[in-house]
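Input record, target 12 of the design panel.
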């Protein structure tokens, strides 16, 4: 068996969303994907190599299958029945494509991880319009609320861009306040940079680079607080952890289904296995210290939180 525990499977490429800041439609072309049958065959081939987790990726993952009269929900329903893979994770999905049916399916699945990464980009509706995004903050908040209602233990990550043209202090404040008002768990923060052949590069009201970087710093600090709070909320519970092969000073690392990074004393027998682990405390590196002292996990989908004794 190889050392890899998870791998990425690109299920979609290209994009039909011409956002004002992005060059992907020019660089990658229109949205396209293989069929469900072809994608499932790829997943089974990956499973044969011993990989336990497949991360579904794409430029606009939720747009899978449109040219084949198929859709992303149909894909994950079929993949869920592929017994060879123990865990699937959705890498990123647009909030307007992350519909109730997809959320509810993940909530009821034993194989799809309760982890959603939804790009927001801005918490200001004015800026979202300038970006030509296909949703507003109300829809985004609704998607987050639905996920947490169906899966209180789910992890939600967010992409945010700071300093796009026209982002005044007030509009940035709206983003900061919006992110604090919804139950999300970590941020991927990007500083806007000009890209040739985009609409945004021709816009007035450019934000000075030092201001962009300061805003990025503020949101990354917020992300640290959100992630810490999410980790702390799971202490004293048990989650399934997929452990990796690397040894770090006598310890090994792995991820829970809902994306907590867990550290344990190195045990070669636990490599590339999914094990119920008690989550005890957070170490100086920001990892959760795990213990094999666990409680029994109820036989419900996605390992509902169980209190350790």
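The sequence produced for target 12 reads:
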């Amino acid at each position: 068996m190889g050392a890899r525990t998870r791998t990425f499977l690109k299920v979609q490429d290209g994009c039909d969303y011409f956002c004002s800041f992005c060059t992907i439609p020019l660089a990658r072309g229109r949205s396209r994907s293989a069929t469900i049958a072809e994608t499932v065959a790829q997943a089974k081939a990956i499973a044969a190599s011993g990989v336990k987790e497949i991360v579904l990726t794409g430029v606009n993952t939720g747009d899978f299958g449109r040219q084949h009269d198929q859709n992303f929900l149909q894909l994950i329903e079929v993949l869920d029945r592929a017994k060879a893979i123990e865990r699937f994770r959705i890498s990123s999905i647009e909030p307007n494509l992350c519909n109730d049916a997809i959320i509810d399916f993940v909530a009821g699945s034993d194989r799809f991880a309760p982890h959603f990464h939804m790009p927001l980009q801005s918490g200001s509706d004015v800026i979202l319009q300038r970006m030509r995004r296909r949703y507003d903050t109300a829809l985004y908040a609704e998607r987050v609320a639905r996920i947490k209602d169906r899966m209180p233990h789910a992890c939600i990550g967010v992409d945010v861009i700071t300093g796009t043209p026209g982002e005044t202090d007030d509009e940035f404040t709206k983003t900061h306040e919006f992110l604090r008002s919804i139950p999300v768990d970590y941020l991927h923060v990007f500083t806007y940079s000009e890209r040739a052949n985009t609409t945004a590069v021709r816009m007035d009201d450019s934000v000075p680079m030092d201001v962009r970087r300061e805003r990025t710093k503020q949101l990354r600090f917020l992300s640290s607080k959100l992630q810490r709070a999410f980790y702390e909320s799971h202490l004293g519970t048990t989650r399934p952890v997929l452990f990796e092969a690397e040894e770090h000073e006598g310890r090994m690392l792995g991820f829970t289904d809902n994306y907590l990074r867990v550290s344990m004393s190195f045990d070669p027998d636990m490599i590339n296995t999914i094990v119920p682990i008690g989550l005890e405390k957070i170490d100086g590196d920001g990892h959760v210290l795990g213990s094999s002292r666990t409680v029994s996990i109820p036989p419900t989908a996605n390992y509902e939180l169980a209190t350790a004794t």
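The chain has a mean pLDDT of 88.
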